[in-house]
Amino acid sequence: MNAPATPDIRVLLVDDQELFRAGVQVIINAQAGMTVVGAAGDGLEGVRLVDELEPDVVLMDIRMPEMDGVEATRQIFHPDRVARRGRPVRVVVLTTFNLDDRAARAIRHGASGFLLKDTTPLMLGDAIRTVHGGNAVLAPRDLSTLLETQFRESAPVPGPYRALTEKEREVFDAVARGLSNTEIASLVFASESTVKTHVGAILRKLALRDRVQIVVFAHQHGLVKF
Hints:
Rossmann fold; Arc Repressor Mutant, subunit A; five-stranded parallel beta sheet; globular; transcription; transcription regulation; DNA-binding; WalR-like; phosphoprotein
């Protein structure tokens, strides 16, 4: 018996340039395992379509009329909306500037990283698959550089972090440094499945959505250890 086919990754485009949206839609639809389910010309419409279409990944322009990508991302990840949503959604910010401060703010609000608008079709497809898997789409040190501008003073470490086990803190530190499950498994002398279990427990205990939010949490509370 053949294994059931894996559903395509559902992608929503949010950008105020119609020609850019059309070009990106062609690129994504030409890739195996993903399809564009909708497009919006501003952040306000983008938030509405996320609620309506429940995409897996949103490609979000950072500078738009009506509502920019930062505010749209904040609204997409508002707890009330997240609670009503039937499936998780990931946001990738699109920008023309490397290490954009607005991109950093969008990541704080829940985005999984950013891409420059002149990225290649191959890199765009890889980025969509990466964030769909719960990972960031920029190098950990680049992410750290962005977040350092957002958290100049560390917030107090909350109680749930102190409740992590010693092994969970080891895994937390490794995730915050951008290590993969394979690298973490070697570091803490455990299997990859055990590492995944620890990551799941960390996300649950700290009420975080994904590994990117672990990195944000670590910077916010001064817990990054390179």
